[in-house]
Specification:
single chain, about 750 residues, alpha+beta, Multidrug efflux transporter AcrB transmembrane fold, 3 domains, four-stranded antiparallel β-sheet, 24 helices, 10 strands, about 10% strand, elongated
Length: about 750
């Protein structure tokens, strides 16, 4: 009667679990349909110090430095062509009528101011309607440094239009504007058109996010199914494990939507993370269950045996994996923190379902035909046995090889560079990336360079002559140092008016007498939009703005340092304060902070896992044994990065903490199984053999699943996602090799004279 009651209780419990899971899954299935995709560029701005505050104040005073579109139109026969320039003027006027566009500046509507007469006169820069003046216009244009690299390239095969859009456009407005601009450009038959801007980058990112989200899920699903089939040779061995991880992904995405979160460039990887990390627990449970069934163990005893021999180790792997992902909380970047939180949540859900839903499914739907998990005889057994004895006979060789790899890797690590290129995250086959490269090649580039200039003496004004002289010095240095285009500042306006007034491009800067005339004209029009976007209304601050090539943060920082040194040495430091700011500057700083934060997170992960290991085994020697085979792969991968020229940046810096958390799983299962076998009173050699055979196939299977899952990320058009998948794959492979060869040597070295682990 007692056994019957236990069976009834088990049946009721498992039935309740299945019903509860179905109801929760239906609820989250309804929620998931409202899940949206989002790429908010500014969410990746750092908030480590006052730089973000400085940038926000800068935008309030002047304008958003990334709310623009630049269009380059090619005419390979040459740009000084009446038909071509007439179309450019028509395009300029048509674009100006589009909603959310404040102003379109093109070579056909640029006006210069001449103050040499009695009254100011505006003159047309390019007389596109009069071809007889093209030669004269061309000569004047190509002797004007501020125009070359901005509106005109050196090769004179194209020209550019600068579009100022409204600030703080919503996604809907941005997409609408991008579509209208693209639609307008299609009406004109130019040789080629290139365009860049936040609205186009955002649209490209979001389109790719949606495509890759589906791609990662489908490819991960396919690869996991393949590995499960080769392992279990039964449809049942595929359906049941897949059910667990799919429900885990469903619940996680449903919770995200319930909390108002959307999919971004980081969380596109979330399903893959849950697939590969969550499947590990399922495979170990599944393997142990059918292993015991094949031995003839009573089903009523299997669950308690699994909890003892598999449950605790998988719980430990859950902790280490979650620690790896939660180390991302050290980042000040919101999307990265959320990626760590929700991936951890998904892995925890997968673990809970593995020990609640999986037993219920096995209880009600155990297949009639037995699933064979491993062979106890044959080639596999002989290979594993010979391999284990080879390891014990070649302990010194393994140590020497490991040390050599470490030395080589340290040399590689010394070659790692911390760098950031704005659109490097996109592969070069993406059209907007090709356009970005075009502007870097033929123009001065489109990376924003922003400098805020503040007066230290509030009794003075930016319009004072002595201030203008200082600004002009810095202007000239920036043009020479950065080869900047679209360079605007109060001093550049003064200089342009001065040159145009005397029709002499060789003039430098007006003297104090000439400046009085120019400043009077500018101050009287200080509320004009073109002036107010450069000088604040109170006259106490100004900006120097330009566009430069996206040469990478290393080179940009070199130029920035040269600029800072020039300012300190050659300007009146008691008069003006210069501060680098802007979206590009913040992204570079974000990369530096990310690398620093991830290093802190990685060290924290090591510390937590080391303390956990010590708590479990009460031995610092065991901590060393545990850490060496798991830190070893990360040192190797860092060395590979150095030799391969893979730069350390926000995407690649994530690898170390996450890979460390995942890589520890196999080590935990190996050590836990060895401890169990020794606890049964077996000799050390026999315990090693049993551990090798019991954990071997699940470890190999989960490794293939991990590799398959992370390989799917290598299909990404985002370089950060590609390198993340690639580096974690390599790390997982090295980690399993380390556990197979190095870990037994370390354990045997320390416990060779003992019968039991501490």
């Amino acid at each position: 009667m007692l056994n019957l009651q236990i069976i009834k209780n088990q049946k009721s419990y498992h039935l309740i679990v299945i019903i509860a899971v179905i109801l929760i899954s239906v609820f989250f299935s309804f929620r998931i349909q409202f899940l949206s995709f989002n790429y908010d560029f500014e969410e990746f701005f750092p908030n480590e110090d006052n730089e973000l505050e400085l940038y926000n104040n800068f935008r309030k005073t002047f304008e958003y430095d990334n709310e623009f579109v630049i269009i380059a139109v090619e005419n390979k026969a040459g740009i000084f062509n009446n038909h071509f320039l007439t179309k450019i003027d028509a395009l300029t006027k048509e674009l100006s009528q589009i909603n959310h566009i404040q102003k379109v500046t093109s070579p056909t509507n640029i006006k210069t101011i001449d103050l040499s007469g009695i009254i100011p006169i505006q003159k047309q820069l390019l007389h596109f309607n009069d071809s007889s003046l093209y030669k004269e216009d061309s000569s004047a244009i190509y002797q004007s440094p501020y125009l070359i690299g901005s509106f005109f390239p050196i090769n004179a095969k194209s020209l550019s239009l600068f579009i100022k859009t409204d600030d703080e456009l919503t996604k809907k407005a941005s997409d609408s504007l991008a579509n209208q601009i693209e639609g307008t450009l299609k009406h004109y038959k130019f040789d080629d058109i290139h365009y860049v801007g936040r609205i186009f980058a955002q649209k490209t990112y979001l389109t790719n996010l949606q495509q890759e989200f589906a791609l990662f899920m489908s490819v991960s699903l396919f690869l996991v199914v393949i590995f499960l089939w080769f392992s279990f040779k039964r449809i049942y061995g595929i359906i049941v494990p897949m059910t667990i991880v799919i429900i885990s992904v469903l619940w996680t995405l449903g919770i995200m939507n319930f909390l108002g979160k959307s999919i971004n460039i980081m969380t596109t990887m979330l399903p893959t993370m849950i697939f590969v990390a969550g499947m590990s627990d399922v495979v170990h449970y599944f393997s142990k269950y059918f292993d015991e069934v094949s031995k003839g163990t009573e089903k009523s005893k299997i669950y308690s045996l699994i909890i003892k021999e598999v449950g605790f180790p998988t719980f430990l792997t859950l902790i280490t994996t979650v620690v790896g992902f939660l180390s991302l909380l050290f980042s000040s970047i919101k999307p990265i923190r959320e990626f760590g939180i929700y991936t951890s949540l998904g892995i925890v859900i997968a673990f809970i379902l593995s020990y609640s839903l999986l037993p219920a499914l096995l209880y009600f739907f155990t297949p009639k035909k037995q699933i064979l998990i491993k062979e106890s005889t044959g080639r596999t057994y002989k290979y594993m046995q010979s391999n284990l004895f080879w390891i014990f006979r070649r302990q010194k060789t393994i140590f020497i090889i490991s040390i050599l790899f470490l030395i080589i890797s340290v040399i590689g690590i010394s070659k790692i560079k911390v760098n950031n290129v704005l659109l490097e995250d996109l592969s070069e086959k993406v059209e907007i990336k090709q356009d970005f490269i075009f502007f870097d090649k033929y123009y001065s580039g489109v990376r924003p360079l922003e400098i805020q200039v503040n007066l230290k003496d509030s009794t003075k004004s930016i319009w004072d002559y002595e201030v203008m002289v200082e600004l002009n010095k810095v202007n000239d240095f920036i043009k020479k140092e950065y080869h900047a285009g679209f360079l605007i500042s109060a001093a550049s306006m003064v200089k342009t008016i001065y040159i145009n007034s005397y029709q002499d491009t060789k003039l430098n800067f007006p003297d104090s007498e000439d400046y009085k005339i120019i400043s009077k004209q500018l101050i009287s029009n200080k509320k004009n939009k073109e002036i107010s976007r450069i000088v604040s209304s109170d006259g106490l601050s100004s900006r120097i703005s330009g566009k430069i090539q996206d040469m990478g943060s290393i080179k940009v920082n070199e130029h920035n340092n040269n600029l800072i040194a020039f300012i300190k040495k050659n300007t009146n430091n008691n008069l003006l304060e210069f501060k680098l700011t802007g979206a590009a500057q913040l992204v570079d700083r974000n990369n530096e902070y990310m690398v620093s934060n991830m290093a802190q997170g990685f060290l924290c992960s090591i510390l937590i896992i080391a303390l956990l290991t010590f708590f479990l085994h009460r031995s610092w020697r065991m901590v060393i044994v545990f850490l060496i085979p798991n830190v070893f792969p990360l040192i190797i991968i860092a060395g590979i990065m150095g030799f391969a020229g893979i730069e350390l940046k926000s995407g690649t810096s994530l690898v170390f903490s996450i890979a460390f958390g995942i890589a520890t799983d196999d080590t935990i299962h190996f050590i836990s199984r060895l401890k169990i076998e020794l606890g049964y009173g077996k000799s050390l050699i026999y315990a090693f053999k049993r551990t090798y055979f019991e954990t071997g196939k699940p470890i190999i299977l989960t490794t293939f699943i991990l590799i398959g899952g992370f390989m799917s990320l290598m299909l990404s058009d985002f370089n950060s996602t590609f390198y993340f998948g690639f580096l974690v794959c390599i790390t997982v492979i090295i980690a399993v090799i380390s556990d197979i060869f190095l870990l037994p040597v370390l354990l045997f070295l320390i416990y060779g004279k003992k019968k039991k682990l501490n």
